[in-house]
Amino acid sequence: MNGGLELTGDEWTLANFTGAIHRGGVGLWAWSPTQRVAQLDSLCREFWGVSGAVVDIDVLFARVNAADRSAMVKEWAASERDPHPYSFDFRIGEGADARWISARGVGGDAGRVGEWVQAIFLDITDRKRAEEAERLLTAELAHRVSNMFTVARALTSIVARDATSAALFAEDLSRRFGVLHEATVLATRAQQGESGNVSMGILAERILAPYRHGNNIEIDIDDAVVATQGKVNDYAMIFHELATNSAKYGALSGGGTLKVQGQMAADGMHVTWRERSAPSEVPKADGTGFGSRLLKQTIERSLGGRFERAIDGKGLCFAMVIPQT
User: Fold this and answer.
1) Residue 274 contacts residue 252 (beta carbons within 8 Å)
2) How far is CA 125 from CA 50, 73, 237, 268, in A?
3) Alpha helices per DSSP H over the chain
4) Mean pLDDT confidence for 163-172
5) Nearest CA among 232, 170, 172 for reference residue 207
6) Can you give the pTM of this predicted structure?
7) Per-residue pLDDT tens digits for 70-105
8) For strand 116-123 and strand 99-106, is the pairing parallel, antiparallel, or unpaired?
9) Domain limits for position 205
10) Whether residue 312 sits in one domain with residue 220
Protein backbone atom coordinates (compact mmCIF):
# COMPACT_ATOMS: atom_id res chain seq x y z
CA MET A 1 0.00 0.00 0.00
CA ASN A 2 2.77 2.42 0.91
CA GLY A 3 5.25 1.32 -1.74
CA GLY A 4 7.71 0.03 0.84
CA LEU A 5 7.89 3.36 2.69
CA GLU A 6 7.89 3.15 6.45
CA LEU A 7 5.62 5.63 8.16
CA THR A 8 7.26 7.38 11.10
CA GLY A 9 4.20 9.04 12.59
CA ASP A 10 2.33 12.29 12.10
CA GLU A 11 3.51 14.27 15.09
CA TRP A 12 4.60 17.85 14.44
CA THR A 13 7.40 19.49 16.31
CA LEU A 14 6.93 23.13 17.24
CA ALA A 15 9.81 24.10 14.96
CA ASN A 16 8.56 22.39 11.80
CA PHE A 17 4.95 23.44 12.44
CA THR A 18 5.97 27.07 12.88
CA GLY A 19 8.20 26.94 9.81
CA ALA A 20 5.41 25.48 7.69
CA ILE A 21 2.81 28.11 8.57
CA HIS A 22 5.32 30.94 8.31
CA ARG A 23 6.15 29.87 4.77
CA GLY A 24 2.44 30.24 4.06
CA GLY A 25 2.42 33.79 5.41
CA VAL A 26 0.65 32.86 8.65
CA GLY A 27 1.80 34.23 12.02
CA LEU A 28 0.58 33.29 15.51
CA TRP A 29 -0.51 35.82 18.11
CA ALA A 30 -2.49 36.08 21.32
CA TRP A 31 -3.69 38.97 23.42
CA SER A 32 -4.82 39.60 26.96
CA PRO A 33 -7.87 41.87 27.31
CA THR A 34 -7.10 42.45 31.00
CA GLN A 35 -3.42 43.31 30.60
CA ARG A 36 -3.87 44.89 27.12
CA VAL A 37 -0.76 43.28 25.74
CA ALA A 38 -0.19 40.95 22.78
CA GLN A 39 2.19 38.04 22.33
CA LEU A 40 3.62 37.85 18.80
CA ASP A 41 5.65 35.13 17.16
CA SER A 42 8.64 36.03 14.97
CA LEU A 43 6.62 36.49 11.75
CA CYS A 44 4.03 38.67 13.51
CA ARG A 45 6.83 40.81 14.88
CA GLU A 46 8.05 41.24 11.30
CA PHE A 47 4.52 42.21 10.18
CA TRP A 48 4.26 44.90 12.85
CA GLY A 49 7.88 46.07 12.73
CA VAL A 50 8.49 45.46 16.43
CA SER A 51 11.25 43.55 18.19
CA GLY A 52 9.61 42.47 21.46
CA ALA A 53 7.61 39.25 21.77
CA VAL A 54 5.19 40.96 24.17
CA VAL A 55 3.89 44.35 23.00
CA ASP A 56 1.39 46.84 24.38
CA ILE A 57 -1.85 46.75 22.36
CA ASP A 58 -1.89 50.51 21.90
CA VAL A 59 1.59 50.38 20.36
CA LEU A 60 0.22 48.03 17.71
CA PHE A 61 -2.91 50.11 17.14
CA ALA A 62 -0.75 53.17 16.50
CA ARG A 63 0.91 51.32 13.60
CA VAL A 64 -2.38 50.54 11.84
CA ASN A 65 -3.14 52.61 8.74
CA ALA A 66 -5.13 55.68 9.81
CA ALA A 67 -7.96 54.89 7.39
CA ASP A 68 -8.38 51.37 8.82
CA ARG A 69 -7.69 51.99 12.51
CA SER A 70 -11.17 52.74 13.89
CA ALA A 71 -12.87 49.72 12.27
CA MET A 72 -9.94 47.45 13.12
CA VAL A 73 -10.00 48.41 16.83
CA LYS A 74 -13.74 47.63 17.00
CA GLU A 75 -13.27 44.25 15.35
CA TRP A 76 -10.32 43.46 17.64
CA ALA A 77 -12.39 44.27 20.75
CA ALA A 78 -15.34 42.22 19.50
CA SER A 79 -13.12 39.15 19.10
CA GLU A 80 -12.89 38.92 22.90
CA ARG A 81 -16.55 37.95 23.43
CA ASP A 82 -18.27 37.17 20.11
CA PRO A 83 -18.37 33.33 19.98
CA HIS A 84 -18.14 33.13 16.19
CA PRO A 85 -15.37 32.80 13.62
CA TYR A 86 -14.11 36.21 12.55
CA SER A 87 -11.91 37.67 9.82
CA PHE A 88 -11.06 41.32 9.42
CA ASP A 89 -8.51 42.98 7.15
CA PHE A 90 -6.38 46.06 7.76
CA ARG A 91 -3.13 47.70 6.73
CA ILE A 92 -0.01 48.17 8.80
CA GLY A 93 1.75 51.35 7.76
CA GLU A 94 0.93 54.10 5.31
CA GLY A 95 1.38 54.66 1.60
CA ALA A 96 2.15 52.25 -1.22
CA ASP A 97 4.36 50.06 0.98
CA ALA A 98 1.68 49.34 3.59
CA ARG A 99 1.27 45.65 4.43
CA TRP A 100 -2.21 44.10 4.27
CA ILE A 101 -3.03 41.71 7.12
CA SER A 102 -6.07 39.51 7.76
CA ALA A 103 -6.76 38.70 11.43
CA ARG A 104 -8.62 35.39 11.77
CA GLY A 105 -9.82 33.26 14.64
CA VAL A 106 -12.80 32.26 16.78
CA GLY A 107 -14.07 34.62 19.44
CA GLY A 108 -15.31 34.00 22.93
CA ASP A 109 -14.29 31.03 25.06
CA ALA A 110 -13.54 28.84 22.02
CA GLY A 111 -10.61 31.06 21.15
CA ARG A 112 -9.20 31.36 24.68
CA VAL A 113 -6.39 29.62 26.47
CA GLY A 114 -6.54 30.94 30.01
CA GLU A 115 -6.70 34.71 29.81
CA TRP A 116 -5.27 34.78 26.29
CA VAL A 117 -7.34 35.13 23.12
CA GLN A 118 -5.43 33.22 20.43
CA ALA A 119 -5.63 33.64 16.64
CA ILE A 120 -3.56 34.12 13.49
CA PHE A 121 -2.41 36.97 11.28
CA LEU A 122 -2.28 36.19 7.54
CA ASP A 123 -0.28 38.33 5.12
CA ILE A 124 -2.66 39.12 2.21
CA THR A 125 -0.66 41.98 0.71
CA ASP A 126 -0.20 40.38 -2.72
CA ARG A 127 -3.91 39.59 -3.05
CA LYS A 128 -4.99 43.07 -1.99
CA ARG A 129 -2.55 44.73 -4.38
CA ALA A 130 -3.80 42.51 -7.20
CA GLU A 131 -7.39 43.49 -6.39
CA GLU A 132 -6.40 47.15 -6.30
CA ALA A 133 -4.62 46.85 -9.65
CA GLU A 134 -7.69 45.18 -11.17
CA ARG A 135 -9.98 47.94 -9.87
CA LEU A 136 -7.62 50.59 -11.20
CA LEU A 137 -7.40 48.88 -14.59
CA THR A 138 -11.18 48.72 -14.87
CA ALA A 139 -11.56 52.37 -13.88
CA GLU A 140 -8.70 53.38 -16.19
CA LEU A 141 -10.28 51.55 -19.12
CA ALA A 142 -13.61 53.30 -18.52
CA HIS A 143 -11.81 56.62 -18.21
CA ARG A 144 -9.86 56.10 -21.43
CA VAL A 145 -13.00 55.20 -23.35
CA SER A 146 -14.65 58.35 -22.01
CA ASN A 147 -11.56 60.35 -22.98
CA MET A 148 -11.64 59.01 -26.52
CA PHE A 149 -15.23 60.23 -26.92
CA THR A 150 -14.14 63.60 -25.53
CA VAL A 151 -11.25 63.74 -27.99
CA ALA A 152 -13.59 62.80 -30.83
CA ARG A 153 -15.98 65.63 -29.94
CA ALA A 154 -13.13 68.12 -29.54
CA LEU A 155 -11.52 67.22 -32.87
CA THR A 156 -14.87 67.31 -34.63
CA SER A 157 -15.50 70.81 -33.24
CA ILE A 158 -12.01 71.99 -34.23
CA VAL A 159 -12.33 70.71 -37.80
CA ALA A 160 -15.88 72.01 -38.19
CA ARG A 161 -14.81 75.61 -37.46
CA ASP A 162 -12.79 75.85 -40.68
CA ALA A 163 -14.42 73.24 -42.92
CA THR A 164 -15.60 74.66 -46.26
CA SER A 165 -17.30 71.49 -47.47
CA ALA A 166 -18.51 68.14 -46.19
CA ALA A 167 -15.82 66.34 -48.18
CA LEU A 168 -12.99 68.45 -46.74
CA PHE A 169 -14.48 68.10 -43.26
CA ALA A 170 -14.50 64.30 -43.55
CA GLU A 171 -10.98 64.19 -45.01
CA ASP A 172 -9.50 66.45 -42.31
CA LEU A 173 -11.26 64.64 -39.48
CA SER A 174 -10.18 61.24 -40.80
CA ARG A 175 -6.56 62.42 -41.03
CA ARG A 176 -6.56 63.67 -37.45
CA PHE A 177 -8.08 60.44 -36.13
CA GLY A 178 -5.45 58.54 -38.11
CA VAL A 179 -2.62 60.43 -36.42
CA LEU A 180 -4.19 59.86 -33.01
CA HIS A 181 -4.38 56.15 -33.80
CA GLU A 182 -0.70 56.13 -34.80
CA ALA A 183 0.25 57.57 -31.43
CA THR A 184 -1.77 54.89 -29.65
CA VAL A 185 -0.18 52.14 -31.76
CA LEU A 186 3.29 53.56 -31.05
CA ALA A 187 2.68 53.35 -27.32
CA THR A 188 1.10 49.90 -27.51
CA ARG A 189 3.95 48.42 -29.55
CA ALA A 190 6.53 49.81 -27.15
CA GLN A 191 4.56 48.48 -24.18
CA GLN A 192 4.53 45.02 -25.74
CA GLY A 193 8.28 45.08 -26.26
CA GLU A 194 8.17 45.43 -30.04
CA SER A 195 10.51 48.43 -29.91
CA GLY A 196 12.98 50.01 -27.54
CA ASN A 197 13.03 53.49 -26.07
CA VAL A 198 10.77 56.09 -27.70
CA SER A 199 11.64 59.76 -28.02
CA MET A 200 9.36 61.83 -25.80
CA GLY A 201 9.43 64.52 -28.45
CA ILE A 202 8.09 62.10 -31.08
CA LEU A 203 5.48 60.80 -28.67
CA ALA A 204 4.27 64.32 -27.88
CA GLU A 205 4.24 65.23 -31.59
CA ARG A 206 2.11 62.19 -32.45
CA ILE A 207 -0.41 62.82 -29.70
CA LEU A 208 -0.70 66.58 -30.28
CA ALA A 209 -0.68 66.49 -34.11
CA PRO A 210 -4.49 66.27 -34.40
CA TYR A 211 -4.82 69.55 -32.46
CA ARG A 212 -2.27 71.63 -34.38
CA HIS A 213 -4.64 73.31 -36.81
CA GLY A 214 -5.90 76.50 -35.21
CA ASN A 215 -3.69 76.20 -32.15
CA ASN A 216 -0.20 77.47 -31.41
CA ILE A 217 1.68 74.38 -30.20
CA GLU A 218 5.42 74.32 -29.55
CA ILE A 219 7.28 71.14 -28.60
CA ASP A 220 10.84 71.57 -27.37
CA ILE A 221 12.02 68.26 -25.91
CA ASP A 222 15.70 67.30 -25.97
CA ASP A 223 16.69 64.13 -27.82
CA ALA A 224 18.05 62.66 -24.57
CA VAL A 225 14.56 62.67 -23.07
CA VAL A 226 13.07 59.27 -23.86
CA ALA A 227 10.31 56.98 -22.65
CA THR A 228 11.95 53.69 -21.74
CA GLN A 229 10.63 50.38 -23.01
CA GLY A 230 7.78 49.21 -20.83
CA LYS A 231 6.91 52.76 -19.72
CA VAL A 232 5.91 54.33 -23.06
CA ASN A 233 2.24 53.68 -22.43
CA ASP A 234 2.48 55.53 -19.10
CA TYR A 235 3.86 58.64 -20.79
CA ALA A 236 1.35 58.37 -23.64
CA MET A 237 -1.46 58.23 -21.06
CA ILE A 238 -0.07 61.35 -19.35
CA PHE A 239 0.07 63.31 -22.62
CA HIS A 240 -3.38 62.04 -23.67
CA GLU A 241 -4.85 63.10 -20.31
CA LEU A 242 -3.32 66.57 -20.51
CA ALA A 243 -4.39 66.99 -24.15
CA THR A 244 -7.94 65.82 -23.43
CA ASN A 245 -8.32 68.26 -20.54
CA SER A 246 -6.85 71.03 -22.65
CA ALA A 247 -9.31 70.29 -25.47
CA LYS A 248 -12.16 70.50 -22.97
CA TYR A 249 -11.09 73.46 -20.85
CA GLY A 250 -7.80 74.94 -21.97
CA ALA A 251 -5.59 76.06 -24.81
CA LEU A 252 -6.56 73.29 -27.24
CA SER A 253 -10.24 74.20 -27.01
CA GLY A 254 -9.40 76.99 -29.46
CA GLY A 255 -7.18 80.03 -29.80
CA GLY A 256 -4.71 79.22 -27.05
CA THR A 257 -1.00 78.47 -26.92
CA LEU A 258 0.74 75.36 -25.62
CA LYS A 259 4.45 74.78 -25.00
CA VAL A 260 5.83 71.39 -24.02
CA GLN A 261 9.44 71.27 -22.88
CA GLY A 262 11.67 68.43 -21.74
CA GLN A 263 15.27 68.11 -20.63
CA MET A 264 17.48 65.88 -18.52
CA ALA A 265 18.93 67.12 -15.23
CA ALA A 266 20.90 65.64 -12.34
CA ASP A 267 17.71 64.47 -10.62
CA GLY A 268 16.12 62.98 -13.74
CA MET A 269 13.77 63.88 -16.58
CA HIS A 270 11.97 67.24 -16.40
CA VAL A 271 8.86 67.77 -18.53
CA THR A 272 6.70 70.89 -18.41
CA TRP A 273 3.36 71.55 -20.10
CA ARG A 274 2.40 75.26 -20.16
CA GLU A 275 -0.90 76.53 -21.52
CA ARG A 276 -2.15 80.02 -22.15
CA SER A 277 -5.83 79.94 -23.01
CA ALA A 278 -7.95 82.30 -25.01
CA PRO A 279 -10.56 84.17 -22.93
CA SER A 280 -13.42 81.80 -22.24
CA GLU A 281 -16.38 81.34 -19.94
CA VAL A 282 -15.80 77.57 -19.87
CA PRO A 283 -15.09 76.44 -16.29
CA LYS A 284 -11.62 75.01 -15.69
CA ALA A 285 -11.10 71.47 -14.37
CA ASP A 286 -10.23 71.56 -10.68
CA GLY A 287 -7.85 68.60 -10.75
CA THR A 288 -9.79 66.41 -8.33
CA GLY A 289 -11.43 63.94 -10.76
CA PHE A 290 -10.42 60.45 -11.78
CA GLY A 291 -8.10 61.79 -14.48
CA SER A 292 -6.08 63.65 -11.86
CA ARG A 293 -5.97 60.58 -9.62
CA LEU A 294 -4.82 58.53 -12.60
CA LEU A 295 -2.02 61.02 -13.28
CA LYS A 296 -0.97 60.80 -9.66
CA GLN A 297 -1.04 56.99 -9.73
CA THR A 298 0.94 56.82 -12.98
CA ILE A 299 3.58 59.42 -12.18
CA GLU A 300 4.15 58.63 -8.52
CA ARG A 301 3.68 54.87 -8.36
CA SER A 302 4.44 53.54 -11.84
CA LEU A 303 7.19 56.02 -12.76
CA GLY A 304 8.40 56.86 -9.25
CA GLY A 305 8.28 60.60 -9.96
CA ARG A 306 6.54 63.71 -8.73
CA PHE A 307 4.50 66.49 -10.31
CA GLU A 308 2.97 69.90 -9.70
CA ARG A 309 -0.12 71.36 -11.33
CA ALA A 310 -1.13 75.01 -11.08
CA ILE A 311 -4.08 76.81 -12.69
CA ASP A 312 -4.64 80.55 -12.72
CA GLY A 313 -6.57 83.05 -14.80
CA LYS A 314 -4.05 82.81 -17.64
CA GLY A 315 -3.88 79.05 -17.99
CA LEU A 316 -2.21 75.94 -16.65
CA CYS A 317 1.31 74.87 -15.78
CA PHE A 318 2.02 71.16 -15.28
CA ALA A 319 5.53 70.02 -14.39
CA MET A 320 6.78 66.51 -13.65
CA VAL A 321 10.14 65.09 -12.67
CA ILE A 322 10.92 61.42 -13.29
CA PRO A 323 14.13 60.02 -11.74
CA GLN A 324 16.63 58.19 -13.94
CA THR A 325 16.43 54.39 -13.71
Assistant:
1) no
2) 19, 20, 27, 31
3) 14-23, 42-48, 57-62, 69-78, 125-162, 166-191, 200-208, 232-249, 290-296
4) 78
5) 232
6) 0.48
7) 999 998 888 888 888 989 999 999 987 899 999 999
8) antiparallel
9) 198-322
10) yes
